[in-house]
Amino acid sequence: MADLDLLDRAFAAIMARMVRSGRAPHYTELAAALGLPVEQGRQTLRDLIDTGIPAWLHPGTDYIVSFPPFHNLPTQYRITVAGEQKWFAQCGFEALAVRWLFPGQTVRVDAPWLDCGEPLAIELRDEETLTVSPVEMVGYAYSQVGGPAENRPWR
Amino acid sequence: MNLFRSEEHARNWADFDPAQAQTLQPVAQWAARFSAPLFRERTRPDYISWLLAERARQRA
Fold first, then answer.
1. Residues 22-41 of B with CB under 8 A from A
2. Measured between CB atoms, does A38 come within 8 Å of chain B?
3. ipTM of predicted complex
4. Domains contained in chain A, CATH given
5. pLDDT tens digits in sequence order for chain A, 155 residues long
6. Is A33 exposed, middle or buried (0-12, 13-18, 19+ CB in 10 A)?
7. What is the pTM of this model?
C-alpha cells in the first residue's frame, strides 16, 4: 500500500485532471504527474481505488471508469460549466455534487428522464440551487447507495 | 441513482423497485445530502488522509 501522502497526491492529481479536461488520466500519465516510475504509478492507482472511495476501474484493466463525482465513460448526466459541456457525472446524485469542484461557477446538469427520454435540467452554484426543471423533480435509487461496485454503472 | 420528472415518472420506470421506494425524495433533499463534507472536501490536497481519519472518527 502506498503511503498516505502519495495517495493524497494521486487523488488530487486525478481530480484536477478531471476538472480541467473532463477525462481521467491513464496510469502512465499519473506516474508522470507524481514523478514515479510507470509501474509504481499503476500500483498507486490500484492502491487509491482500494481505499474504498466510490471510484472504480474497468474490470481486468487499469482504466479509470469512474472517479466521483465524475464518470470517465459517458453517462446520461451531462455537465456544463461556463458554457462548456465536457464532463459526465457518475450518477444523478453525484451530479448534484459536481458544483463543489467548481466554486463560484454555475454547474448545469442535463439528462433525459429514464422513463420517457424527455429532458430535465438543474443548475447549481455553490450553496444555491438556481433552477430545477421540472420543479417536481425527484431522485431515486433502486439499489442501496454505495452498494456493490459491479452494479454501480447501471443503476 | 437517477433523477426523474416526478414521483409518478419514477414509479413508471421499467427498473423501479417498490422495495426501494423510500429513496424517492425531492431533488432538493438529495442536493442537501450531497452537500456533506464527504463531497465538499474533494478539492483539498489531503483528501484521502482526511477521509480515512473521518471514517475512523465515525467508527470510534
1. 23-31, 33-35, 39-40
2. no
3. 0.90
4. 4-67 (1.10.10.10), 78-133 (no CATH)
5. 779 999 999 999 999 999 999 999 999 999 999 999 999 999 999 999 999 899 999 999 999 999 999 999 999 999 999 999 999 999 999 999 999 999 999 999 999 987 778 899 999 999 999 999 999 898 888 766 555 554 444 44
6. middle
7. 0.91
